[in-house]
Amino acid sequence: MDNHAPAPTAAVLLIGNELLSGRTQDINLAYIAKRMVAKGIRLQEARMIQDVPEVIINSVNELRARHTYVFTTGGIGPTHDDITADCIAEAFGVSLPIHPEAKARLLAHFKTIGVESNEDRLRMARIPEGASLVDNSVSAAPGFRIHNVFAFAGVPRIMQAMLDSVLPELESGPVLHSVTVISNLGEGAVAAPLRKLQEQYPAVDLGSYPGKVADSFRLSLVARGTDEAQLDQVKIALQQIIVDQGGVVLQD
Amino acid sequence: MDNHAPAPTAAVLLIGNELLSGRTQDINLAYIAKRMVAKGIRLQEARMIQDVPEVIINSVNELRARHTYVFTTGGIGPTHDDITADCIAEAFGVSLPIHPEAKARLLAHFKTIGVESNEDRLRMARIPEGASLVDNSVSAAPGFRIHNVFAFAGVPRIMQAMLDSVLPELESGPVLHSVTVISNLGEGAVAAPLRKLQEQYPAVDLGSYPGKVADSFRLSLVARGTDEAQLDQVKIALQQIIVDQGGVVLQD
Fold this sequence. Notes:
2 copies of one chain form a homodimer.
Chain A (H helix, E strand, L loop, with lengths): L8 E7 L1 H4 L7 H12 L2 E8 L3 H14 L2 E5 L10 H9 L7 H14 L5 H4 L9 E3 L8 E4 L2 E4 L3 H11 L10 E7 L3 H14 L4 E9 L2 E10 L2 H17 L4 E3 L1
Parallel strand pairs in A: 1-2, 1-3, 3-6
Antiparallel strand pairs in A: 4-5, 5-6, 7-9, 7-10, 8-9
Helix pairs in contact in A: 2-7, 3-4, 8-9
């Protein structure tokens, strides 16, 4: 890993009407985000879109041109609304044949759980030409990787297993560490010194996040950067800002 | 409301590095989604993006051209990383002056909670030229509406108050109702009859969502549409599919 090389970037494409109807609360993004942080890959954007072919195809093409990696979740099951593989194949202009190894894994799994194979179940073995399989240790039906695009399941447990199985093949970058200083101050009290501190440390990303903890107001000041020694300095400076403004450092 | 007119559409732009670092689990999208369903507005896409001016400006311009409404969350506080108002003003090519009414509300609020006004706190009174204010019943600092773009706070309690305050001014459309049939079957068992049912009812959106409830596998079949009588028929047909495939209808 070259610390001076730009970090790899990633985008997530969350596919499914149920996310946009409010029926399902997505938890996949946060999981992927944490894995990307640990790997030193910068997750730069995420989109939630409907099961509409044109929208999926355009989004895949837009994001794969812009990022080192694209991860899609959802739409790789056996039902009529599972169209992610079709759309990714179309985005890359390749066919979508039955993949022999994917089929073999499915048939073995069907035998184990005692269900019969049928045309719809075998739809899950259709893999874009040239793609490699992504293991599914939960329910056999594989995801796939084609160039820089990874297609994962939408069910969180399966998505997590799939992502974890491909982590070793992802390029890593300089890890973005973070430090957090929590206080009882309002944002307006710290805005000016925080702005000065940000100017003093341009390589550090300073964020200010108001919120509630057990019904009490709490302000979290978060600094992110690749240089841990510098983050330690910034943390002390943040604590000093709190004290200077008459606040209390509540946790660190 | 004209039942034959196309429904209004919406997009959500969730702004903030903390969403993409995995630090904060967004809950604003699901809240907005539910309100849109009740109002008959079709939420068609959501994006999570970083606090980067160019990205915010381009996203706002892309989405506002495509949808009836755009809702942004985050980035309207007093600190240096709060750049949403600046970016929306730039997207519309307008200035960002102090808004007298916004300033008056802030000063009254500062007096009530006993904090002094300062330059940073008054940044929250900067409102794009031509925008109207969106009430903030929680902490006074207003959001704003400019043409079809609404800028809300990122803190969920404030975002919710802001959205609820503007709901009456949004155009409504034919409400998309939904029915759900839950069973113990796998998706592969129902895929073929489900596909046929979808062809029979093209105006209904049929979705199949596998998941776990209390560690048992559950499949939710969801039908969405504007015609409630038709949805009742579809619900009975879904229950029949479950029974025909040897499954049990677990809840309806």
